[in-house]
# Entry
Amino acid sequence: MNPKVFRDASSSDSSFFEELTNPNSSTLLEVTIEENTVLHLALQFKKFEVAKKIVNLRPSLVYEKNSKGNTPLHIVARVGDSSMVKLLIDEAKKLDVESGGRQQQLLRMVNQDGDTALHVAMRYGNFDVVKELINENDPAELAMQVNKAGESALFLAVDRQHYDMASYILSAARDCSYAGRHGMNVLHALVIYTRSYFVKEVIIKCPSTIEQRDDLGWTPLHIAAQLGNKKYVKLLLENGNSPAYEMNNEGLSALHIAAKKGNVNVMKELITTCPDIYEFLDLKGQTSLHVAAESGEKEVVEFFLKRPEFESLINKQDKEGNTPMHLAANNGHIEIACLLRRRGTGVDLNATNKKGFTAMDNVMLRMKLKHSKPTIQLWKEGARPSLRGARFQMGIQKLEPEEGSEDKKMSTSELDYMNQKKQTVMVVATLIATVTFTAGLTVPGGFKNGGVDEGMAALSKITAFRVFLIANTLAFGLSITSVFVHFCSSTISREVVPRKGIGITPIFTAYSTVALLVAFISGTYTVVPHSMGITTAVIICCCLIIYRYLYFSYKRACYLGIQWFIILYAPYMED
# Structure
């Protein structure tokens, strides 16, 4: 395009076009790189007086498209001038009459995206343009068109939250398309944007939108359940409860989705409307209680346990044989498992799934949960690993899960954790052994230099020194035993011995640490002046450390003993 033509078309100076009197002038036929005509440019830069002059000189430019398929009407629909829209439509009507109706009607022309001018006006929120477009054509015919993304003009209005424009189309058009992108419809968008007054209007005019599924299989009810909107759930079920039993592509119903998100208020509404829906199973054969236990939704689990009619769900097994207890334990929600045991009536703690595992097996395979308070509580209430699970933990029977399965990932993670723990214990035990060995050869008070007892400990007759000697020897013995066990484990099996080593050596190392503290107290007491203040301060400081250490280690040590008793003697329990 001539640079002067481009500047004049995009400026307020229309003198260049006023000088033009020949409609066939080549100047009016020039286009830019994007194939925009001078009319496109004038409208794009809102030079409407220039645009009117161009239309009068060359009316056929009204139908010209640029490289993106946009007509001048698409441009003005985006810019938002209703008077210019009317001018373009009037010129198009004249051309249709002159050509005997063979010209394509301008209002229905689409660009490369399949958008009509009405789509563009909706997208940019130009209400006056929308009114002009609707009034100049059959509203139903224009409102039924969808673009290549599957979006109707009504959907775009709701999607951009132009609800006044959406209401205008609903009232003006006897029929319109409710379709949206990705298989959604207007009702899907309204539920997401929470516009209840408009939801009622859409349901009244087109009830079929309630049951329509998007590309993911979600109905508007699924979305309302996920968002926890009880009001919408009730509204959507007033025209029938069939959507409540619909599953999305993942096999989840609205009740399952509400349970997964912890939306108890929605669950209550669904169960009130559809009393038998609590028995509804997803594609995995799971109830909503399974889903809640798997997701760790405590409030939902409590809701089921408080009502006796849901008692049958507590021990219900899915297609893999897992109960809600299995799923809670497998996903690390040990508190949910305890809740099921505490409030559940007749819960089977030792139910096995199709792989032969109990819920306790899943807990034992998770190192971080093995020694937790809820796990110990489950143990006290009777939960036990299966014999197969106990053998797996001690390496007697090696399980071979399928490639990429969760069991295999869990086993690898556990082994890495134990190896890391083994190295830590090894370092601590080595340091204690080194310190105690040195202390044993350089005793407090030194050695005698002369006489019959030359080379003997100078303070050997003092009681505190004897306590030091016993404690130091005990610390050295326990720590060197831990080092020896770790050394042996590195030369045998990498699967079996690390489990046993880590199960025993932390206890030895823990007690050697306590013995080392006792040796320090007694050794210090032996060599310092017998001052009550100094002695008391040393003893109190060390005793506080010992107390805190034993307090946090006691339950852990007790549980380790119980665990290894089960693992070592499980093979003999089968008989």
About this structure: The chain has a mean pLDDT of 78. The radius of gyration is 40 Å. Residues 286 and 394 are 32 Å apart (CA to CA).
